[in-house]
Amino acid sequence: MANEHPAPTAHPAASSTQNSHLPIHATPAPSDSIIIPTAMASASLPAPAPGRAELLKAFEESRTGVRGLVESGVSSVPEIFRHPDPYASIPLAPPGVSIPVVDLSLPFPSAAAAAAEAARTWGFFHLVNYHHALPQPTDGGGGGDYPARALAAVRSFNELPPAERAPHYGRTVDGGVIYSTNVDLYNSPAASWRDTIQIMLGPNRRPDLAARIPAVCSAELLEWEARATAAARAVMGLLSEGLGLGPAALEEASCLEGKVMACHYYPHCPEPERTMGIVPHTDPGVLTVLAQDDIGGLQVKHQDEAGRSCWVDVKPVPGALVINVGDLLQVDFFNIFILCERSTFNCRNPVTIKISQFSALPIHQYS
Fold first, then answer.
1. CA pair distance 305, 309, nearest whole angstrom
2. Which of 344, 194, 216 lies closest to 265, judged by CA?
3. What ranges does the record list as Low complexity composition bias (predicted)?
4. 153 and 217 Cβ atoms separated by less than 8 Å
């Protein structure tokens, strides 16, 4: 995925090749941040410090996540969330550098060529004018405010009183829905400054899944799932065509069957320079469809023609989705497409919301 600078102070993470995501840095902002995506950390960090297990246990027993720390009035970042700053040597890209834009309203061959080129050179791109490819809303209303409604619903859940959030907190994947702080909380050397709702959308989807998602956001997230899946189908068609395989090749390979939605919420951080929202990582699966609010904070690592790496800010584009080529697509097509590392470490911003849906993910990766 991508990187960000101030999310508790974190630096852009480098990708093993051209692109990558950076961690989200926390920053002193009056509001909170929300994001919907998760990925696999790729940065090399030191081993967890002695005594960390006891601190983690105490944090987990509160069942209120990072948001609970903010609600308690913490004025400094707890030790378990403090990250080193190993990416200072990788600079930010100069102003004006941005990921490519793919316009779905263009003739199919032109859009396919643009998507394939963006995937080859960046591993990321903005997708615009995609609404005609999405299903109509089930409530009969206008669908133009999606994913805004889904992003707002994620915020609503995370800003419920602690006593209403706590019953949902846990790490058991059996129910199809997980609300927790960091899926790798007990394995990573330092925790990241975010809370997440993860929803297992297939292939073995629970028939009662809708009832297991918190009521305040269930309808909105499932409505967004249908739209994100349609967007993923359209992008897979473009990439398949760009590879010369025909527009249905990726979908016919069952690349839409295994899906996970990750909704990340990044609260205000009192010391953004000490932690990260997400460490540098690449995304699992075939591709990620990411919806972010108008605050931003996402960064991707990119290598210029001279081979120099830098972190590129992915500024929000009104009405656009962010598409990220995942590990499986990059590997299966023999490095034809770039595997880009990303991170979100900028938590200095006001409330930030991002929703990611991964396609073709084995559920065990999130257990």
1. 10
2. 194
3. 1-17
4. yes
**Is residue 87 a contact partner of residue 11, using CB atoms and an 8 Å limit?**
yes
Contact between 37 and 298 under an 8 Å Cβ cutoff? The reply is no
By percentage, how much of the chain surpasses pLDDT 70? 73
CA distance 283 to 229: 17
pLDDT of residue 224: 93
d(CA 246, CA 324): 21
Reference 326, options 338, 317, 316, 314; nearest CA is 338
Tokens 């019953």 sit at which residue? 167
Q: Which two tokens stand for residue 286?
A: 């075939």
Q: pLDDT tens digits for 164-192?
A: 999 999 998 888 999 999 989 999 999 99
Beta strand pairing call for 19-20 and 24-26? unpaired
| Euclidean distance between CA atoms 19 and 123, whole angstroms | 6
Q: How far apart are CA 275 and CA 82, in angstroms?
A: 5
Q: At the topology level of CATH, where does 19-44+51-366 sit?
A: Jelly Rolls (2.60.120)
8-state DSSP, 216: T
Annotated domain spans of the chain: 19-44+51-366
Query: 65 pLDDT exceeds 80?
Result: yes
Instruction: Give strand ranges (E) for the chain.
Output: 19-20, 24-26, 33-35, 40-41, 101-103, 124-128, 177-180, 195-200, 259-266, 278-282, 287-292, 299-303, 309-313, 321-325, 340-347, 352-359
Contact assessment for residue 47 and residue 189, using Cβ atoms and an 8 Å cutoff? yes
Residue carrying the six token digits 């990766």: 365
Which single residue is written with the structure tokens 């470490």?
A: 345
> 116 near 243, Cβ under 8 Å?
yes
CA distance 347 to 350: 8
